[in-house]
Amino acid sequence: MKYFKYILLFSIVILLFGCSKQESTKSPVELGDVEVNEYEGEKLSSFDDFRENSIKGPQYIDIDSYELVLSGLVETSQNYKYDQVLEFPKYTKMVRLNCVEGWSVDILWEGVLLKDIFDDIGVKPEANTVIFYAHDGYSTSLPLDFILNNNIIMAYKMNGVEISPERGFPFELVAEQKWGYKWIKWITKIELSDDKEYKGYWEQRGYSNDADLDKDFLE
Ligand SMILES: Nc1nc2c(c(=O)[nH]1)N[C@H]1C(S)=C(S)[C@@H](COP(=O)(O)O)O[C@H]1N2
Ligand SMILES: [Mo]
Question: What is the model's pTM?
Fold first, then answer.
């Protein structure tokens, strides 16, 4: 059996190769979500169609230390972690964002209903205004009724993909029917208030507090 040692060596090589192959199939490569570009026959805009015009540029939020604060005229204040927010029922909506600078994007948004969060914490009867604050010092507000009557969502995905840091990760308000400056990005705090006259960043600088798309944004 002068070939025995070759046969043995060959067998070992086959065995090792076989095992290592099996090893690699055990840990599949995770493929990220792919951005969709069409929804119910309508063409969607892409992440790249936004123009970056945020007051302090893109914000990079560390999700491990991130908390979404719910406070003000509520029964119980809450600090939610990112994953806790994502435990609320999920909704999708295709909505156009219109910036006052004259561009717009059609995006398929996925998010949680603000009403569900408000039901969780309990809103006091005096509350009539919702003030949103962001990581870059930006703020804006909307009437509580408007939010409840229009099923307003806070999005964590655009076109099926997690919102990027540039576009507002972890959350952007989908303020449909309102000009882009109501679509606050990088939301860190939501305050229930009775101050109907509250003015956010652009509102203090002369933009209409109603921000209705069918009206002029300059008061
Ligand atoms: N936190 C924060 N959110 C913000 C802004 C901002 O400067 N800071 N800009 C607003 C404006 S004016 C628009 S048009 C939309 C979309 O802006 P983008 O294209 O920079 O994403 O975000 C809104 N949300
Ligand atoms: Mo804007």
Answer: 0.88
